[in-house]
Amino acid sequence: MSGRLPLLAAFAGALVAVVLGFLTFGAQATVAPDHVPVAVTGPMAEKLAAHGGDALAWRVTTPSEGRRMLEDKEVYGLLDLTGGQATVLVSGAVNPSGTQVAQQALTGVAQALTSAVKVETLHPAGAAGRAVPLALSALAWVGALAAGAILALRGKPGTGARFAQVLGSGVLLTGVLAGFVKLWDSSLPLGWDVLGFVFLAATAFAALQAGLLRLLGIRAMAVLGPLYLVAPAVAGQVPELLNPAYRALLWSWTPFRFSTEGLRSLLQGATDAPDIMTGVWVLTGLLAAGVVVLLLPGKQAEPHAAHGVVEVGVH
Questions:
Q1: What's the pTM?
Q2: 260 vs 299, more confident
Q3: In whole angstroms, what is the distance from residue 16 CA to residue 10 CA?
Q4: CA 87, CA 251: separation in Å to the nearest integer?
């Protein structure tokens, strides 16, 4: 067995590289626009929509309806051809990857039609505003995971200890993450809606992790750890840029995208965006699922004499 151990260790390392390669770098290496949703209004709108290709999914609409669609994140950009000029409208509340692709594509189309092109941005976001939503989601996950793992390594904590860790992680991580927001960009809002959403995300992550750690023990880290690496690779993209396999197998269910996009809308002032309530419902569901698992009755402890060993006293 000792002679085969180095080969087994090397095989395990290669397997880990394969899994992480698919989960992280594979998603980034295969990024390509595929029917990215954009809106167009004014003369030439129908013609553009009919000959738009596969990269963009054109939606012909009116200027007011196009703005509403952008506010609700139904599209990533609007090309307005009314008024004798071309206006490209994007939003800082939309995922930056989608915004970048939409702005570049729509600007190129507009420049091919007219020399008078103007770019406007709703809810403009700086560098920190673009990075903070995903950063806070990932840090909430890894912070809660570290707390849960430390508690699990101390033995078999009781229900009360696990609940205390979940609640404590939610409160402390909210404070830490709020501090980072102030440090990175003090102009970003930190009202009760933002703080409440961050607390819900951190507590939901902690509860879900605590539930899995209770069911699987420290072996749950083999599932929970790699999920942290999925966050920037998958949740940082819009689905229309991901390979269909990654879109279906990873992006469709990763919890990070719900917390990230809901928080992005709140931080950029798009408080009516539907992804806020979607995030609240999903995170509440994760929290409830974790709590249910923590409340499940555990197995009764077996007596020490269960293995048939009888202690004999010495008189």
A1: 0.86
A2: 260
A3: 10
A4: 32
